[in-house]
Amino acid sequence: MNDTADEAVLALPDRTLLVLDDDLPFLHRLARAMERRGFEVTEAETVSAGLAAVNASPPAFAVVDMRLEDGNGLDVISKLQEVRPDARAIILTGYGNIATAVTAVKLGAVDYLAKPADADEVFAALMATGEDKASPPENPMSADRVRWEHIQRVYELCDRNVSETARRLNMHRRTLQRILAKRAPR
């Protein structure tokens, strides 16, 4: 990170940031990286902890994972926008799709990043204004990876029922079984 980015954060009147993710190693790494960039970070690993942090002291910025053990991170985004409409929040997810991206933006998120996102991407998304959008990622997920993630998400939502997942994806059951048996594409 450069000095102008440091100065941009230090010039902010409120540098509070909520980082909400249930992947603890990622949560701690991102929190430390954002602290080094000048933010005052609060960490949370559940929707209930995130909502409690927002109610206690609404942050100026938030980085929220979409799928958490006890619910959906969109609930935290919605609450944050309710109590602090000027807050800038972004959604992080490994299960990205257009419908959830649209919902996140409608609820007040300023950006939607696919995991794995690094601290520089998160910082750029938080600091981007309406005129200058964050630059596209250097290594975005491949189309095969996006397809695989979507299939995995539907499979999990169908309680790992192959027949039901195949029906919902309009795919032959054996084809789905072959896809599920393979490793995730890069």
Automatic annotation (TrEMBL):
GO terms for biological process: regulation of DNA-templated transcription. Pfam families: Response_reg. It comes from the Bacteria. Keywords: DNA-binding, Phosphoprotein, Transcription, Transcription regulation, Two-component regulatory system. GO terms for molecular function: phosphorelay response regulator activity; transcription cis-regulatory region binding. InterPro entries: ActR_PrrA_rreg, CheY-like_superfamily, Sig_transdc_resp-reg_receiver, WalR-like. The modification 4-aspartylphosphate is found at D65. GO terms for cellular component: cytosol; protein-DNA complex. Residues 16-130 form the Response regulatory domain. NCBIfam families: ActR_PrrA_rreg. This is ActR/PrrA/RegA family redox response regulator transcription factor. It comes from Microbaculum marinum.
